[in-house]
Amino acid sequence: ADITVAALPMDEKRATAFGLMKIDEEGRIIEFAEKPKGEQLKAMMVDTTILGLDDVRAKEMPYIASMGIYVFSKDVMLQLLREQFPEANDFGSEVIPGATSIGKRVQAYLYDGYWEDIGTIAAFYNANLGITKKPIPDFSFYDRFAPIYTQPRHLPPSKVLDADVTDSVIGEGCVIKNCKINHSVVG
C-alpha cells in the first residue's frame, strides 16, 4: 500500500466526528469522507460484517471510521505533499481523500480492540475514568498478553496516609493524605 489508514467499526451517533470510508473486498479504500453529515453520512454506511462483525454488532456499527493513524510510503508522502497537495493542511480532509481520488493504493488496517478518540477534554476525561469501571474496566493496564510499555518516570512510589481510596488508579509519586478518593485517576 502507498498509505495505510487504521480503521474501526463505528456507530451512527459518533460517526459524524470521524473520517469515514468504504473499502473493497481486499481492504482497499475506495471512498473517504471527512466528518460527513446528513445524506453524505448515510451514503457512507456499509455492511460491516465484512470486518468480521456478527449481524447484531454490524447493525449497531454500520460505518468504518478512520482512527487518524496513517502509515505512508516515504516517497508517496513526499510526492503528495510537494506535488499533488502542496497547500494541504490536513491529512483526513485533504490528503487521504485526494490520494484515493488520484488512484494511490490506500489500504485500511481494520482494528476492533479498545481505542478512544481523546480529541476533546470530555473524551479524555471519560477515557481516563473508563479504567476505573467495575467489574471490568474499559481498558486494562494489567493484561499480561498485551503489556503496556512507557518511559521510566524515576518517581518514588505513591504514599497513602489516612485516606480512603476506592475504584481509583493512583500514579507513582503521589502523596494522598487525609482525604477520600472515589472513581478517580490521580497522577
TrEMBL record:
Q: Which Pfam families match?
A: LbH_GLGC, NTP_transferase
What are the GO MF terms of this UniProt record? Answer: ATP binding; glucose-1-phosphate adenylyltransferase activity
Question: Could you tell me the EC number(s) of this protein?
Answer: 2.7.7.27
Q: Which InterPro entries match?
A: ADP-Glc_PPase (IPR011831), ADP_Glu_pyroP_CS (IPR005836), NTP_transferase_dom (IPR005835), Nucleotide-diphossugar_trans (IPR029044)
Keywords in UniProt for this one? Allosteric enzyme, ATP-binding, Nucleotide-binding, Nucleotidyltransferase, Starch biosynthesis, Transferase
Please write the reaction equations for the catalytic activity of this protein. Answer: alpha-D-glucose 1-phosphate + ATP + H(+) = ADP-alpha-D-glucose + diphosphate
Could you tell me which pathway this protein works in? Glycan biosynthesis; starch biosynthesis
- Name the chain's protein: glucose-1-phosphate adenylyltransferase
| Broad class of enzyme this protein falls into | transferase
The processes (GO biological process) annotated in the record are: glycogen biosynthetic process; starch biosynthetic process
Domain (Nucleotidyl transferase) spans 2-133
- So what family is this one in? Belongs to the bacterial/plant glucose-1-phosphate adenylyltransferase family.
May I ask which residue range the UniProt record assigns to the signal sequence? Answer: none
